[in-house]
Amino acid sequence: MADRYLAIFFVSLSCLYRSFDASAGDVDPLYRACISQCEKTGCVGETCFTHCEYSVDGSSSDNQKEPLYRQLTQRDCPNDCKYHCMLQREKERAALGFGPVKYHGKWPFKRVFGLQEPVSVAFSALNLAMHIQGWLSFFKLRSKTTNKRISYDYAGLWNIYALLSVNSWFWSVVSHSRDVELTEKLDYSSAVALLGFSLIISILRCFSIKDEATRVLMSAPLLAFTTTHILYLNNYQMDYGIIDAHSLWHATTVPLAYIWWSFIQDDAKYQTINPRMIREQFGAKRERFEAKTNKIGKGSSWAPQAVPGATCDAENSRLKNWGAMEGAWRRAGHR
């Protein structure tokens, strides 16, 4: 009895897997018949493919070999047959009042200038441009810092974030231009890597974690989870269903990228210009200096005072710079 139940379970599981593995358009008999006919003749209706050569009896030419670029992009005869048969079946379904269905896990988009999903390509390219612009602005801001001795504790992490962002949106453009197995996996893997690192750096910044050992301990489990998920995606047949809402999601992230990089630049300015943050970085050194010079009394303000002596010229210059920055900060309305 137990063996019978076990057999029923595995049969049901295999049927369930097949139902998940196939899309409604794939199992359409007319769609399959169209592909079979196209593979024999090289034509779908009145549309024939010049890069497909067939003999009079319908058999493929022995000398026919797909160019390398068509093999890499999978724009060969079999795939062109699938694409045009899909378009033909959707026209027939629309004439009968039926809505679109998925084919091989994807919605039936029509190519524009050779691009498989032109709207998603456009918005992905805009996201890529926004991240490049934000990264360059951040780099210019850091290069113009008045006092090079004042460090921004998250500069290196934001540069890594920028690299992952540019990489992720680049592969998003490529994948939506031509969605094959390789570009799809690169798109997914890059997106997951960006999301995982975004979570890590958000936690580090929100809780102001600056100690390297603490950063490693916090990041290690998240990095392990992200890596495991990327490996899972690359060993699983994905079916995420590219719909119009997907391209609209790409559209919403364009202004968010601008806002996010604006925050990063403001955070860097606050950390490197605000006198309060400067005092945190150099407070201990200043206290030792003041104790030696005995120039600032117990109840005096933080305003810098000049220190006599040629040996203190460098320190006097730095204190004047601090005073100038604090004055500009206060005139701007900050406390």
Describe this structure in words.
With 335 residues, the chain is mainly alpha-helical. Among the domains are: 23-52 and 75-108, no CATH class; 118-275, no CATH class. Helices cover 67% and strands 1% of the residues. The chain has helices at residues 2-21, 29-41, 68-73, 77-95, 118-143, 155-177, 181-206, 212-233, 244-273, 275-293, 313-331, and strands spanning 43-44, 47-48. A two-stranded antiparallel sheet has the order 1-2. A hairpin with a 2-residue loop joins strand 1 and strand 2 (47-48). The longest helix has 30 residues, at 244-273. The termini are far apart.
Helix content: 55-70%
Radius of gyration: 31 Å
Number of strands: 2
Number of helices: 11
Strand percentage? under 5%
Class by helix and strand content? Answer: mainly alpha
Low-pLDDT parts are 5-21, 55-63, 299-312
**How are the strands of the largest sheet arranged?**
1-2
CA-CA gap between termini:
79 Å
Mean pLDDT: 75
Largest sheet: 2 strands, antiparallel
- In N-to-C order, the SSE pattern is HHEEHHHHHHHHH
Shape assignment: elongated
List keywords for this structure.
335 residues, mainly alpha, two-stranded antiparallel ribbon, 67% helix, membrane, golgi apparatus, signal, Per1-like
Could you provide a short overview of the structure?
With 335 residues, the protein is mostly helical.
Question: What's the arrangement of secondary structure elements?
Answer:
Layout lengths: L1 H20 L7 H13 L1 E2 L2 E2 L19 H6 L3 H19 L22 H26 L11 H23 L3 H26 L5 H22 L10 H30 L1 H19 L19 H19 L4
Antiparallel strand pairs: 1-2
Helix pairs in contact: 2-4, 5-6, 5-9, 6-7, 7-8
